[in-house]
Write a structure and sequence with these properties.
The protein is extended and about 60 Å long. 74% of the residues lie in helices and 0% in strands. Helix 3 packs antiparallel against helix 4. The protein contains four helices and no strands.
């Protein structure tokens, strides 16, 4: 039970809990500024985009950008999605195209 992974996970859970509670304590009964909900609304898609792009174009060794089979699979998924394919089929198309591109290179 003294595995560092569990200790790190416990620390993250505790930190998250404390941060969520700190917001209520700091704000008290005050109203949020009018611009804040709009900011949060735009923040979520921006963060998701950053995560997708870094995973899609990031080099495995962390040294810049790379164009590989992941990009072809993503492009195929976009085409399937635009053709209104169901989500499981979009995922299968992305997997099949990525695997094919990796097998050919």
């Amino acid at each position: 039970m003294t595995d560092p992974t569990w200790l790190a996970l416990g620390a993250l859970v505790l930190t998250t809990f404390l941060l969520k509670g700190a917001g209520s304590l700091v704000m008290g009964g005050r109203e949020l500024p009018t611009w804040f909900p709009r900011f949060v609304e735009y923040l979520t898609p921006a963060l998701l985009t950053v995560l997708v792009v870094t995973q899609l174009l990031g080099a495995p060794a962390g040294g810049g950008l790379t164009l590989d089979a992941r990009l072809t699979g993503f492009a195929a998924a976009l085409v399937a999605w635009r053709l209104k394919a169901p989500v499981p089929l979009v995922i299968l198309v992305a997997v099949a195209v990525t695997a094919t591109a990796r097998a050919l290179t």
